[in-house]
Amino acid sequence: MKRTLDLPPGPGNPRNSEGAFLPLRDGRIMFAYSRYCGESKSDHATAEIAARYSRDNGTTWSGKDEIIVRNEGAMNVMSVSLLRLKSGEIALFYLVKNSLSDCRPVMRRSFDEGRTWSEPKVCITDEIAYYVLNNDRVIQLRDGRLLFAVAKHSFPDGRFDEPGVVLTYSSDDNGATWRRGKGALSVRGADGRKHAAQEPGVVECSDGSVLLWIRTDADRQYFSRSTDRGETWSAPAPSPLVSPLSPASVKRLPTGDLLAVWNDHASRPEMKAYRAAEEPWANGWRSPLAAALSSDDGRTWRGAKMIEDDPNGWFCYTAIQPLDDGTVLLGYCAYDLLAHSRLVKVPLEWLYEDSKHTRKGEQR
């Protein structure tokens, strides 16, 4: 594993956080991320979308930020997703945050490999509310449908409505219009108590179904599944991924397996109590950062490997980009409570080492 870029905070730039990768047709790789400006690193402080570029498959990166979206929200813009559409153009998604009652994802397109972008188009128009679409989260199904999951929250009297609900939105016209899926997902424990339902994501399974995962305060990620292209979903249930109240990331590798990156508290149970007085709401410290593989669409996971194991780190909001050289790029928040962004390059061979999984064409 090789660390290839650190983006620590500095004067006038108090936070560099969650982002997304995209290979460009000229051989470069773009990494776009939330770059905060001014004095505050709060989730609601002023931010814009910046980009760095690599010409050598993520081994080295350009040394200067290129601003691709200025702050066009009353509060900020943040949480980038990049997607190469089947039609060829690039889609850029991010949140425009105007207030605690209006935070919605927008979509821009580029037909010239990111040199210029269309005007932003709001994806959620059926109801104005505070929606969270995490970074690196929008997918396109095999049949061309665009799909993402959001958590909807409210802030009565300025207080955060902790549980939230998860909704999905899809587009069958390449992002021109978006439609809400049926129903809203909430998370309940075995005792019937409602838990936090936050920061969901989706990935298409090998059989064409869709797996949805949800960040919760129930000591693990919860999973839900759809067999009708994201229209309806099963009741969320506990997954094998033990974690604090922290997001997971899941993406399909070229081998056909799923790769999950999350804070693995099954491997480091002591992290649940570590520094609990500093962030009591988080249900445990966001360390270590681990990666594991699934060959059965998320039902079981094996071969957990530690990406970061510093007990003082705060590792989360991971972007995943498999490359054609047998490696995977990961971009995540690493230190300073979301203010420090880090990129690493991980060999697939290392992920499969000492695992019962096999890569395509191999036998064990």
Summarize this structure briefly.
Helices cover about 0% and strands about 45% of the residues.
Structural class: mainly beta
Count up the helices: 1
Low-pLDDT stretches? 359-364
Shape: globular
Distance between the termini: 24 Å
Number of strands: 27
Strand content: 35-45%
Overall pLDDT: 94
Order of helices and strands: EEEEEEEEEEEEEEEEEEEEEEEEEEEH
> If you compute it from the alpha carbons, what radius of gyration comes out, rounded to the nearest whole angstrom?
19 Å
Question: What is the makeup of the main sheet?
Answer: 5 strands, antiparallel
Helix-residue proportion: under 10%
Structural summary, described in words:
There is one protein chain. By secondary structure, the protein is mostly beta strands. 1% of the residues lie in helices and 45% in strands. The strands form 7 sheets. Strands 10, 11, 12, 13 and 14 form a 5-stranded antiparallel sheet that branches. A 4-stranded antiparallel sheet has the order 1-27-26-25. A hairpin with a 5-residue loop joins strand 17 and strand 18 (210-215). The longest helix has 5 residues, at 348-352.
